[in-house]
Amino acid sequence: MNRIDARFAALRKEGQAAFIPYITAGDPTLDDTARYVLALERAGASVVELGVPFSDPLADGTVNQEAALRALKGHVSLRNILGMVKELRRDTEIPIVLFSYFNPVLAYGVEAFARDAAEAGVDGLLCVDLPLEETEAYGPILHSAGLATVFLIAPTSPDDRVKRIAEASSGFIYYVSRTGVTGAQESVETAVKGMVAAIRRHTDKPVAVGFGISTPEQAREVAAYADGVVVGSAIVRLIGELGGGAEAAEKVAAFAAELADGVRTSRRPMAT
Amino acid sequence: MTESALLSGTQKVYSYPDATGRYGRFGGKFVPETLMPALRELEEAFHAFQADAKFQERLTAYRRDYIGRPTPLFHAARFSEHLGGAKIYFKREDLAHTGAHKINNALGQTLLAKEMGKDRIIAETGAGQHGVATATAAALLGLHCEVYMGEEDMERQRLNVFRMELMGARVIPVKSGTKTLKDAINEAIRDWVTNVTTTHYVLGTVHGPHPYPLICREFQRIIGHEAREQILEKEGRLPHCLIACVGGGSNSIGLFFEFLQDEEVRMIGVEAGGHGPETGEHAARFAGGAEGTLHGAMSYVLQDPDGQILGTHSVSAGLDYPSVGPEHAHLMSSGRVEYVYANDSEALEAFQLVSRMEGIIPALESAHALAHAAKAAPAMSPEDIVIVNMSGRGDKDVQQAIRLLDPEKSGPEAG
Predict the structure, then answer these.
(1) Most buried residue, A47, A124, A241, B168, by CB count within 10 Å?
(2) Among partner residues A59, A151, A153, which is closest to B193 by beta-carbon distance?
(3) Residue A153 and residue B24: Cα distance in Å, rounded?
């Protein structure tokens, strides 16, 4: 069983939602990323999303753009990210999903990527600019290597698309909680709850919600109805301020622990 | 084979894009999920208005009375004689309103946006030509217009910034990435993702996710449609060869498309060689790039081995872009169109030569096509007819040319 599926199954049994932090791989260095992943796990993360830096991140807000630029300045590539994950697997079994734009994967070669990523211990791939229609040729390659393909559903996705995306998604389904790019915001749109319910009408796969969740209160609120809560920019911003090193990792872990606590203490209906 | 038989025969062969927006293995829709429904909506609206006689009538009237179409096909007699080979014609898109072919697409898309009930349009611009064209169309049709432009480009093209603002558009400086055209496109897409329900994104070239390459081509193919009629009227036969510069590729697709079924017509697209592809400072995607995805399309892209997009260089801002329209990638791989490049220095030379020979100052973009014509024409016979797309006028480039050609007049930083 894929680590992602196992983790969501275990959480479901406990009546808990997953806390899914996102960080940019290689920001500021890959050694720091490895340290951050372990710190996030200690803080209560259930799954970690690792952003693959890209020169033209058109779905990302300023915070993640700058993180990608910092990482690229250190010449981080998909290849050495996989190397870092492989080493990390000696210390942790936390499910790892790569969050990437398609071009770095294409340049690597989709088959070679699928093989090397699975071998390194990556559990899934989310390509933000690879919608359902463009996945036909690549999905089977990723699946046969054992990688989950996580798809995005957006507030603008009509119901028939929601159904098809839910069918094609594996690991979990990522609901983008608003129209717009990644980044922190004041309040999570109230329509999110309704949309999550609409997705559930088509599937019993886990539904995670992300884009714009930045505080423990928001995390608690979303965890009441979603199976996972993704927090990205708020953590990435903190990393941007702190840089690298063991002390920074402890501070990020402290913030992540608050978010994880928000998720854990959420009032969830008993049966989900 | 009769002309109609040839035409119907080829139409069966050339039916791109397919239903998924593909030109062979190129094109498609590589965008975030949020935009997928909007692309669908745009595609449906576009097809509806293509079939709508009233819409087409309005478009035709604006083309005639506002843009000034048809643009002339001009026999460049002195330029031809000087080169001593082919008989060269210029398709005078430089005489279209706002001074370049960009208005054909900007006006068409703005009209489409208005019909779709969107009250706000956004655009990206590099040198400012597409931004000016979109601001122009927005003023004409009374829509709110915002243009994303790299901070560095704004500095280099202050005149165009002022022109846009004069016509009521707001120019938004882009400070991310390399602060140039590709980053302006990133920002425009980010805006569109956020405001997709109220806003239409007027993409300026035959790039981007489907249906943009199709829409832009359909609004630009008027160039070749006119040129084909005009050359048949003047010469009674088809040209031997078409030459156009290729940045994103809209003026070249515009000229080429109506001739694609004419197998005897050679077509040459000219990319920006910058300081030469071997130096790494260029925008010759076919000479120096690889297949990849950028800005929503699978095409040829200048990138490093890790798939990161590379910076580009060209003396001409309009050709200074790391990818190329997917239909060009298809026409290259099928062999229907040949792609070559002209370097900065060759373009500058053609810029001066055509100014002197014909009293026409070409845009530096168009000067790349002229530079290749100057290379190719001497080997041809006077029986061979060549049409070069004079895609824009060069007034916007005069300062840049002074800086490059006469450094002493423009201070120490030039050259």
Answers:
(1) A47
(2) A59
(3) 28
Answer yes or no: B327 catalytic. no
Runs of H (alpha helix) within B84-211: 102-115, 129-141, 151-156, 158-166, 181-194
Q: Is A204 marked active-site?
A: no
Answer whether A104 sits within 8 Å of B308, measured CB to CB. yes
Task: Tell me the chain B residues in contact with residue A62 when contact means C-beta distances shorter than 8 Å.
Answer: 176
Encode pLDDT of B122-157 as tens digits: 999 988 999 999 999 999 999 999 999 999 889 878
The whole-number pLDDT of residue B4 equals 43
Residue of B nearest to A177 (CA): B34
Burial class (CB in 10 A: 0-12, 13-18, 19+), B131: buried
| CA angle A126–B25–B36, rounded 5-degree value | 45
pLDDT digits (tens, 9 = 90+) for A110-161: 999 999 999 999 999 999 999 999 998 999 999 999 999 999 999 999 999 9
- Tell me the residue type at B224: G
**Residue A105 CA from chain centroid, whole number:** 17
Alpha-carbon torsion (B266, B272, B273, B277), positive or negative:
negative
Look at residue A272 and tell me whether its pLDDT is greater than 50. Answer: no
| Contact (CB<8Å) A129/B305 | no
Q: What is the pLDDT of residue B399?
A: 87
| Separation between Cα atoms, residue A243 and residue A72, nearest integer Å | 15
Give residue B12's pLDDT band: very low, low, confident or very high (50, 70, 90). Answer: low
Dihedral pair phi/psi, residue B26, rounded to 5°: -105, 165
What is the value of pTM for the model shown? 0.95
Query: Is the CB of residue B182 less than 8 Å from the CB of residue B321?
Result: yes
Is the CB of A156 less than 8 angstroms away from the CB of B196?
yes
Contacts of A107 in chain B (CB under 8 A): 290, 292, 303, 305-307
> Among this protein's residues, is A66 annotated catalytic?
no
Residues of A in contact with B28 (CB under 8 A): 133-134
Tokens of B314: 């060209």
Tell which of B308, B309, B310, B321 to mutate to test the A interface (max A CBs under 10 Å): B308
Search chain B and give the residue with CA nearest A77.
B306
Backbone angles phi, psi at B99, to 5 degrees: 90, 15
More confident residue, B54 or B10: B54
Is the pLDDT assigned to residue B61 strictly greater than 50? yes
CB distance A56 to B177 below 8 Å: yes
pLDDT at B75 over 70: yes
Helix H or strand E encompassing A239:
helix A233-242
Of B20, B196, B295, which is closest to A133 when you measure between CB atoms?
B20
Count CB neighbours of B14 within 10 A.
15
In whole angstroms, give the CA distance from residue A25 to residue A47: 15
- The rounded distance, in Å, linking the Cα atoms of B127 and B287 is 23
* pLDDT for residue B410 is more than 70: no
| Residue located via tokens 């243009």 | B147
Taking an 8 Å cut-off on Cβ atoms, the answer to whether B306 and A107 are in contact is yes
Per-residue pLDDT of B244-296, as tens digits, reads: 999 999 999 999 999 999 999 999 999 999 999 999 999 999 999 999 999 99
Q: What structural domains and CATH numbers belong to chain A? A: 3-149+211-264 (3.20.20.70)
Contact flag A181-B309 (C-beta cutoff 8 Å): no
